[in-house]
Design brief:
Blueprint (H helix, E strand, L loop, with lengths): L2 H30 L7 H15 L9 H25 L15 H12 L9 H4 L2 H31 L9 H26 L10 E4 L5 E4 L4 H10 L20 H25 L3 H28 L2 H5 L23 H14 L14 H12 L10 H21 L4 E2 L2 E2 L2 H26 L2 H4 L6 H16 L14 H30 L16 H33 L1
Antiparallel strand pairs: 1-2, 3-4
Helix pairs in contact: 1-9, 2-7, 3-4, 3-6, 3-18, 4-18, 6-7, 6-8, 6-18, 7-8, 8-9, 9-10, 10-12, 10-13, 10-19, 12-13, 13-17, 13-19, 14-19, 15-17, 15-18, 17-18, 17-19
């Protein structure tokens, strides 16, 4: 890789190290509920209006079951509202180019996608959705679906930190605080920065222009910067335009690319420090941050190296793949020249490790193992650093599993943060671990055997299998990125991927809340000489090993038939 690529990566890590701890401590005060939180003078009046309109008592707390029911009810209403907006957009305002209502099966898929924080897009943004649908439907869901994931994270941390407690907080309060105090202010700042860097923000329709050849071209407009800001900060990823962040109106320059990549990673990494502050042990937060950073860095270096190295078959034929002195051997198919291969690989590692799903290059055009690494990063459970809230949830579940395995190896009762891990918690952990692979592998296998599903592929052989696997890995993990070679707009894929998104969201969140409720009711035991420290590099290495082994045992056969086989064929 070039020196510029290494410098960009180092600068990104440096900026994250400077900003993530500060934001993490702030969010701990937002969700901590103890004393005054920063910004009370500004935010409390707005929150009180929300509570009054929704008839919420902010002082009352909920058991895990009530918390889960509130989450499900809110998600169901969100689904209905987004579905209705799409179906009725032809008769609603802010539709300057007169787009028709969205087909029922696509509207179902999109409503599920944005409600679950997946933002999988089986449609072209500028040619399908009106400005009203983009703003009142999709952008709103970018905020509240992300805030809902952060609320579950806060409930889990409270469950780990509290002693003999029956409640985990109030879902409606956590949802409101996450949206009002974290996502809205950050999004406003990032949107202004992006607009200043060239990302468009207007209410125009299509502008007709005459090209140098004399042809007429329609240039799309719309409120893109405001949606791009929250799509990155909230681990949403759905693009205003069909080409997502590869489109110059969404991601105009190398500097805007850097800002958006930082925005993707900021909150997920910051939540590690939120965890340390809320459990009153900063060492735990630093350990979680170290695990996240280690896996993300390994995936980033791997993806950047593979894309910068190029295609060995072309090298063997003597084809020069370089386009600039600092991009020797770079593989540029499907990539924007203003970013280059290394920056595209770095973005791919960030977006697949965070359940973000936005792309600044076409992953279908990556080298086989470059795309395979992105797919592997997703099936790790997106814990490095994971989506806002849900990534930390997944890593804490993996930490519980690591503690249990360590206890079995040394013959001691497993404990995490002083609380014993027993059969009830391990059953819930197993439900969490099995739900996503069941739909990913099950629907992939069914697609391989279904003629109409195979007709949606642009490629046969291992690459075609990779397209199917990637599609279900993305939806079942609530990621949203795609291999562009798969036509996912058919009834089969919109329906099955919609179901995969529902399972990947709620069949993981509900066990997490149940674990939180079970742990909250326990009395912590004092640490002894036999207690496994969970803040050390040794424990961090154990957790990384558990993540790799669980994903490897589950998905290695499928990956061997897809990206690995294709890479070996080169």
């Amino acid at each position: 890789m070039s020196g510029a690529a290494w410098s960009q990566s180092a600068a990104l890590v440096a900026v994250l190290l400077a900003t993530a701890p500060f934001l993490g401590r702030y969010m701990a005060k937002v969700y901590g509920g103890e004393g005054k939180a920063p910004g009370d003078r500004v935010f409390l009046p707005l929150e009180r209006v929300v509570y009054r309109l929704c008839r919420v008592d902010p002082e009352s707390e909920q058991r895990w079951t009530s918390y889960a029911i509130s989450l499900l009810a809110f998600s169901f209403v969100s689904f209905l509202s987004v579905y209705a907006l799409q179906r009725l957009q032809s008769v609603l305002p802010l539709n300057p180019v007169g787009l028709p209502g969205v087909d029922a099966h696509v509207a179902f898929n999109v409503a599920v996608s944005f409600m679950t924080n997946t933002n999988w897009q089986a449609y072209g943004g500028e040619s399908t959705m009106s400005h009203l649908t983009q703003m009142a439907g999709l952008t709103v869901q970018n905020f509240v679906s992300a805030a809902a994931g952060m609320a579950v994270m806060a409930a889990l941390i409270r469950g780990l930190a509290r002693r003999r407690a029956a409640t985990l907080g109030n879902f409606w309060v956590d949802l409101t605080r996450g949206a009002v105090r974290v996502l809205l202010p950050l999004s406003f700042v990032v949107a202004v920065v992006l607009a200043g860097l060239g990302v468009i923000q207007n209410f125009k329709g299509h502008t007709a222009v005459t090209t140098l050849e004399g042809a007429t071209q329609l240039i799309p407009g719309g409120p893109a910067a405001s949606q791009v800001a929250i799509k990155q900060l909230g681990s949403n990823g759905g693009g205003f335009f069909d080409m997502n962040s590869a489109h110059p109106f969404e991601n105009s320059t190398a500097l805007s690319n850097f800002v958006e990549n930082w925005a993707i990673l900021l909150i997920p990494f910051a939540l590690a420090f939120t965890f340390g502050a809320m459990v009153r042990d900063k060492r735990q937060g630093r350990a979680v941050f170290g695990i996240m950073l280690t896996v993300w860095a390994a995936m980033s270096i791997g993806a950047m190296g593979l894309e910068a190295a190029g295609n060995p078959r072309l090298d063997a034929m003597g084809v020069d793949q370089s386009v600039a002195p600092d991009q020797s051997g770079g593989y540029l198919e499907g990539k924007e020249v203003r970013f280059g291969p290394a920056a595209s690989g770095l973005w791919a590692a960030s977006t697949t490790g965070t359940s973000n799903g936005s792309v600044n290059a076409m992953h279908d055009s990556f080298t086989p193992m470059g795309g395979g690494l992105a797919m592997t990063h997703m099936v790790f459970g997106e814990v490095s650093p994971g989506g806002v809230g849900v990534g930390l949830n997944g890593l804490l579940v993996m930490s519980v599993l690591a503690v249990f395995i360590a206890g079995l190896m040394v013959g001691r009762s497993p404990e995490y943060l002083g609380k014993k891990i027993q059969a009830a918690e391990m059953k819930l952990v197993m439900l969490y671990l099995l739900a996503m692979p069941a739909v990913l592998l099950g629907f992939s296998a069914a697609s391989v055997l279904t003629e109409s599903a195979l007709a949606s592929l642009n490629n046969a052989g291992p690459h075609g299998l990779s397209e199917i696997l990637y599609g279900y890995a993305s939806t079942a993990n609530n990621n949203g990125s795609a291999f562009a070679g798969l036509d996912s707009g058919t009834v089969w894929y919109t329906t099955t991927m919609g179901l995969a998104m529902l399972v990947g969201r709620f069949f993981l969140i509900i066990p997490v809340l149940a674990i939180a409720g079970s742990m909250a009711a326990k009395q912590p035991a004092p640490a002894t000489s036999g207690t496994l420290p969970t803040h050390t590099p040794l424990f961090g290495g154990l957790v990384v090993g558990v993540v790799v082994i669980v994903a490897g045992l589950t998905f290695l056969p499928a990956l061997a038939l897809g990206p690995i086989a294709e890479q070996l064929s080169l």
